[in-house]
Amino acid sequence: MTFIAMNRFRVALGREAEFETIWRNRQSDLPSMPGFVVFQLLRGPSDEQATLFVSHTIWETRGDFEEWTRSEAFRRAHSGAPKTTGLYLGPPQFEGFEAVMETTRSA
User: Fold this and answer.
1) CB neighbours of residue 32 within 10 Å
2) How far is CA 49 from CA 10, 12, 45, 53, 86, in A?
3) In 3D, which of 56, 63, 59 has the Cα closest to residue 94?
4) Torsion angle, CA of 64/69/73/75, rounded to 10 degrees?
5) Fewer CB within 10 A of the terminal residue: the chain, N end or C end?
6) Residues 40-88: pLDDT tens digits?
7) pLDDT > 70: what percent of the chain?
8) In the chain, where do the E strands start and end?
9) In this structure, what DSSP letter does residue 57 have?
10) So what's the pLDDT on residue 51?
11) Pure H helices in the chain
12) Closest to 68 in 3D by CA, of 23, 98, 34
C-alpha cells in the first residue's frame, strides 16, 4: 500500500527564497532508496507571519519509508543543516498517510 510522508514547515515571511535554496542544494539519496517513488517540495499559502511549505514523498510502503528513516542516507540528508536562525516558526510537523484508494489518469 502506498505511503505518503509529509513535513509541514512554517517559514518566516521574506525568507521563502532562502528556504527553497536550502532544499535545492541539499544532498539527497532518495532516488536510490528502495521503495521511493517521488519527492515534491510544495509551497502553500501565507499568513501575516509565515508561508507554509510541505515536503512530500511517496513510498511504495510504510516499511520502505521507515527503512529510509533508519538509513545512513537519511542521517546524511539531515546532518549539517545550515544556520537557519529565524527561518522557521516552530519545528516541522510530520504527517504520514497510507493510501486506501487511488485513481489514476488513463493513458
Assistant:
1) 8
2) 9, 6, 11, 13, 12
3) 56
4) 180
5) C
6) 999 999 999 999 999 999 999 999 999 999 998 888 877 766 567 889 9
7) 96
8) 3-12, 36-46, 50-59, 93-98
9) E
10) 98
11) 16-25, 62-69, 72-78
12) 34
| Cell matching residue 6 | 509529509
Where does residue 61 rank: exposed (0-12), middle (13-18), buried (19+ CB within 10 A)? middle
Residue with cell 539519496: 29
Amino acid letter, 14: G
Cell of 55: 515536503
Cell numbers representing residue 84 in the block = 537557519
